[in-house]
Amino acid sequence: MTIFHGYDGTALHYERLGDGAPLVAIPGGPGMDARYLGDLGGLDAGRQLVRFDPRGCGRSAAPADRASCAFHAQAADVEALREHLGVERVDLLGHSAGALTAQRYAAAFPHRVRSLVLVTPVGRAAREPDAAELAAIRAARSAEPWYPDAAEADALLADGAGATAELVRRITPFFWGSWNDRARAAAFDPAPAPAATWMREAFYAGTGTATDQARPVPVPMPVLVVAGERDGMIGTAPARLAAALHPDARLAVLPGVGHRPWVEAPAAFAALVGEFIDAV
Question: What's the pTM value of the predicted model, to 2 decimals?
Fold first, then answer.
């Protein structure tokens, strides 16, 4: 294990894959173990992929103060990691909820970020997808054998049923472009860390207020925003909003894939992201 210490001394874990200039990858969830990112479709072939477990996630320690897990506060941990790596600037990638931390860090430390990659990013704080788009993406899967069970679970959640592990597992096929053996193998490995039960509330704490520290801020560096055409978790609307926010951003919607495009289209994903980073 490779450990460094966050801004308040919390022991945090990361691991490196490959060699070269560092690409720091922040996982989503919030609360996911960074190992689910794998090698991001082979991005470690041309650079050093640094998979970072945020505080309370994966193999990192849970902090004494849970409020420190707010995504805007965790930007300071990313800066501590950069200092620990001993580099002047990093390329930074955030997946899903991790894209909020990545954007916050890029806004607070723009001189430390060469490029920013946002992969199927959630919307700001409230995670608001376009309801009509999301319904259409899910309805388009109605002929698939798993659909009735997933739709029933989705209806239960909409009616106020608690987001139990069973219900989340039942709706998971919506999150993938193709619910096949590869998706099934990747979907639940590794399982969310135990801290995930409280992490979501802590991660989004303090947002939506008049003194919102997490208000979105445009960043000056080149930004690539990647969406999955069949992402039945959040759709493409949050990615489009993120791309519209940043002045030097481009949006790429990958066809036929869902919320984890590097699993379903690894070659296309790695080529897209690798070429973007190399061109900066």
Answer: 0.95
